[in-house]
Structure formats: structure tokens, C-alpha cells
Amino acid sequence: MNDDLKKIDSFAKSAIGETPEIVEILGIIDREFSDEQFRENMALYLGRKTLSKKLLSLIALGVSIANGQKESIKVHFELARNQSASDNEILDVIKVVKMALMSSTLSTVGSSDHIFSNFSKNYNKNVEVDNILMNVTRNSGMEEPPKNLSALSKISFDLLNEHIREKTFLLSPVELEKKYTFLIAYAISVSIRDPDCASVYLQAYFNAGGKVDEAVDAIAVSRFITGNKALTYSADIMKLMINPRGRK
Hints:
Mean pLDDT: 87
Strand content: under 5%
Shape: elongated
Distance between the termini: 30 Å
Low-confidence stretches: none
Number of strands: 0
Number of helices: 15
Largest sheet: none
């Protein structure tokens, strides 16, 4: 093992207690790629200076769960535990992921607004819906209600109420500081490319006392974990590159 790989191995073991398999594989296949991965880790993840390592790992855990990266989930779970994250904080993250993913399913409702209006008999707003949207807008600190939520309110009053109920429960943390639930939701929305929800969660984060430098850290972590899908998803074929005899 060369000096650079020893440095990476030592860092991984000090952070999570072991070197992730994908890091070992990458070190064998391409030293320059392995070095670049380590550089990105420091620049975009564990080398960030504003958020604590516990919060960085919880954001990474949330983004990994949202993207279905099983190996990445295990790594960041262990790191979060090593940084003293509690079970309640981890469950709070899982709840935030669920909310962000459910919210993302509404991302195209607004763009279909004109189609629904042509076929829905109950498309016009009523006073009760207007009041709900007014409360949502006031509580979120936005100048107007989210486009997709406004469109949903015209399509189904029941779904609007259900969305608000879900949001109230899933974004009410047991232990994690409230503003960081919004920051994690924002990082997830960035990762899954949901601009409408990203704007809502970012505004809520700042309303709760968030800082720009922390939001920048969240963007950095989201970029790093999202990009890592290229590695976690290709781990099996990289193993075959190391061991061609394993091919059928």
C-alpha cells in the first residue's frame, strides 16, 4: 500500500472504524481516482468547517437514504454513531427523508395545472382552501404559496390536507434541532432535483435561524453523496475488473 492509500485508509478507520469496501476497490483500480475521491471527501464532506461532523454525517445519511445507496447508508450511519448521534436523531432524519420524497411526488403537479383545469369540475378555489394556503405561506415566510401546493389545492382538498398533516408530523423532530430538519430536507431536495421543495425548505431553514455558511455545507455534502452513486452502483463491476476470473 503506497503512502497516499495509507493516508486514506488511516483516515477512514479513524472516522468510521474501518475502510469502506468501495474505497479499497478504488485504491486498487486507479490511484489517481482514489486520490481524487479522498480530496472530494475533504472538500465537500468531512473537511467542511461550519457544520459539526455529526450534522454533516446526518445530512449524508439522509441523502444516501433518499438515493437508495445501501452501502453509503451503512457508512454514514456508522459515522453518525461515532459522532454521538442518538437513535432519535437518526429516526428524525429518516422522517425528514420520507417527507422530502413524498413532497417530490408533487413536483409535476404545477406543470399539469392547465390540464387538470380542463377536466376537473371542482377546480375553483374556495374560501377554506384560500385560508389554508394563506397560513402555509405566512408560516413558511414565502411571498406566495408553493406552485405545486397551490395546484394541488385546486385538484384535491383531501390531498392538500393530507400533505399538511404529513408535513406537521414528519418535520416535527423528537431530538434534532428543528432548523436542521429543514436543512436536511433542503439537501435531499437538492440531490433529487426538486427546486420547488428546495426553495420552501431553504426558506424555512433561514426562518428558523439558519446561516448561509451552513447551507453551503449542506449543498457540498449533497453534491458529494449524489456523485458517489457512480461508485456505489458500480461496485460489483469494479470487483470484476479486479478479478476477471469471477466473470462468467
